[in-house]
Amino acid sequence: MPSKPKLSRVVSDGHYADSFEPEHEDEIYDPVKEDLVRRMLSEIGEDPQREGLRRTPLRVAKAMDFLTSGYQLSAEEVIRKAIFEEDVKEMVVVRDIEFYSMCEHHMLPFFGHAHVGYLPNGKVVGLSKVARVVDVFARRLQVQERLTNQVADALMQHLGAHGVAVVMEASHTCMMMRGVQKQNSTTVSSAMRGTFEVDQRTRAEFMGFLHR
Ligand SMILES: Nc1nc2c(ncn2[C@@H]2O[C@H](COP(=O)(O)OP(=O)(O)OP(=O)(O)O)[C@@H](O)[C@H]2O)c(=O)[nH]1
Question: Which residue intervals define the domain GTP cyclohydrolase I in the entry (predicted)?
């Protein structure tokens, strides 16, 4: 039985690539996860052996590994790879970073946009790394508020900024597809650190960048 590729094969340099492709129809990716999915399919009254579902356990196992790949990644590693000394004193804002995460209560997706600002302290970070840090924490089982805090804390700690601000706006499918079934409500969460926390004008300037 072919063994599952080690995560080190697909996680490198703090980045995750969904690179595993089975070489033939019957290849097994992760026997434990695939068996769990097969049992779930049976429990909901499906036939895991029917044509359309035969490879579903493998696909779900791969999808779950990707959607939770943030556990294998380190925000510190992502940030440290691309810090540049720059004499920049003004606020840097990366806005509208789309993200997908999964709520830890129902394991259903929530998704939306993150807006991240920081006040540099002699160093700037590669812009793509800000978006990667969002993914490091989004690709885990989460609650939106913790996700927002984790992004802010990681940037504050590893970038050594004067301050960091994170605002996230998301739709929760656990509130849309089931339960209370509200299709149009969105949740906004924020985390303010350093200057953004203590200086109302800095916070207002950041919020101003979010309104177009
Ligand atoms: N604060 C917060 N709550 C969340 C998040 N994602 C899901 N939830 C909520 O977690 C709560 C779990 O409540 P429970 O009563 O234990 O679960 P439930 O019976 O499935 O609740 P309903 O969704 O109201 O049907 C629900 O109110 C969800 O809306 C999140 O990111 N942040």
Answer: 35-208
Which residues neighbour 51 within 8 Å (Cβ) at sequence distance 6 or greater? Answer: none
Percentage of the residues of the chain whose pLDDT score is greater than 70: 88
Domain range 74-210, CATH architecture: 2-Layer Sandwich (3.30)
Q: Ligand 1 centroid to 1 CA: how many Å?
A: 40
Closest-CA residue, ligand 1 atom 31, reads 143
Angle subtended by helix axes 127-138 and 144-159, to nearest 10? 140
List the binding residues: 103, 106, 174
Output the CA 149–ligand 1 centroid distance in Å. 19
ipTM: 0.88
Global pTM reads 0.90
* CATH for 7-67, options being 1.10.10, 1.10.286, 1.10.1740, 3.90.1570: 1.10.286
